[in-house]
């Protein structure tokens, strides 16, 4: 049996009782280091906190492992209980659909234990989840690669008065260009897009495309470390948020659509300069 | 301090360790009976299971209480720890934004403990969460009240190739018409919309509006008791799903947009007649 278990967003205590019971009865426990592990405060130190909680060692499944030797894990899961731990929800912002498909093809039974993910936890800012349109991803621009397919999606959402959740790029364990050339495995340090970076790219694209999907006056909500004890949520215009110090990753950004009065009241609590002043 | 704690979707074991710790240290614990409590398998029997787990009595906060005497709860939360338990995530399909706004206005500190909700758990069917458009609600039609504002939203989503999550109506503790007339408080029995009912209404509206937003051949995914041990997920056309016995509530429905190959592979596992046959 393969258990795919969501760890939630904050720390080791965000696992569910059901998730913890499953981990405890599994013979082998993998933890995905692939996408957002660092956001979970999991330094090597944090890993041992988890190992203490679970009472067993963790195998860090990094990107290479997931891409290259995931079948070994699935063969194990045919013989005994294997847990695969995922930050957030197993099918949250990053999906593990492919893993499930491979498991099912190998005849491995799969059980999913859900948890919170960014996609629902953003509700904390007061914007109603049923007033969001399509989610967009903002990738790191490079000198030569500046994809802006998010722009049209934001246009469409705003046309319909909908909010847009922007997921910001994460680069973990990317092979360095130098290492690719030399055929050795060396990695770039992990890189997380900040809200500031995202807004700069958004405004650059608006200037290029000029369809007035948004401007630097557009109201947004910036989230850092959503779901953690030290989460930061700030509402303001793009121009204002670009100057806010949100601190360490992960960051995400919501571009606000048309709001209802209850939404506005709630946003007020997070606004840099509340209307009530 | 007011803790608003998500219980997740399945049963008593879906609370997080953090949530359980908070409940244990609160002096008073309310549980919302307002929207989807019955979906949680919480007969009076289930309630005592929770009370055993928490080691303290629960106060059921029904609709009346939430609407009429919520301030009493908030005054308590100024003096000592109060937990307010919510099925799913506090800001999931149903929101508790208003409660937070009132709390903050009364100077009550609020702490939210997230959990899974329908909005992310639907990821289990393999359709990517970032390929969903606006969520729609399908209300029970009556003889005289047949609101169809969901139709245009589905149109827009399908035009952009996006999936649509349809949340199906729940009627709990509605005053009966007879009781309204007599000035006494009597309630209709709780009523949960089934997938069959939803599809019938959807097709009725399509026939009226005739803009070909979908047809009875449209691929959908039906979910019953999502996140529970006995959840049912079936993919098929509207025509097929209308004949599937999904069993007890809650139900929800996804109208599938344009799919990618990995999404299709995964949907296949849930399809009434898999393509591979």
Automatic annotation (TrEMBL), chains A, B:
Function recorded in the entry: S-adenosyl-L-methionine-dependent methyltransferase that catalyzes four methylations of the modified target histidine residue in translation elongation factor 2 (EF-2), to form an intermediate called diphthine methyl ester. The four successive methylation reactions represent the second step of diphthamide biosynthesis.
Give the enzyme's EC designation: 2.1.1.314
The record's listing under Gene3D superfamilies reads: Cobalt-precorrin-4 Transmethylase, Domain 1 (3.40.1010.10), Methyltransferase, Cobalt-precorrin-4 Transmethylase, Domain 2 (3.30.950.10)
- Its name, as the record gives it, is diphthine methyl ester synthase
Query: Which NCBIfam families does its entry note?
Result: dph5
Q: Which species is the source of this protein?
A: Amborella trichopoda
Give the keywords, sorted. Answer: Methyltransferase, S-adenosyl-L-methionine, Transferase
Which Gene Ontology molecular function entries are recorded, alphabetically? diphthine methyl ester synthase activity
Catalytic activities: 2-[(3S)-amino-3-carboxypropyl]-L-histidyl-[translation elongation factor 2] + 4 S-adenosyl-L-methionine = diphthine methyl ester-[translation elongation factor 2] + 4 S-adenosyl-L-homocysteine + 3 H(+)
- The top EC class, named as a word, is transferase
Q: What Pfam families does its record include?
A: TP_methylase
Q: Does the keyword Nucleotide-binding apply?
A: no
Asked if the Swiss-Prot or TrEMBL record annotates the protein with the keyword rRNA-binding, the reply is no
Family affiliation: Belongs to the diphthine synthase family.
What the entry lists under PANTHER family is as follows: DIPHTHINE METHYL ESTER SYNTHASE, DIPHTHINE SYNTHASE
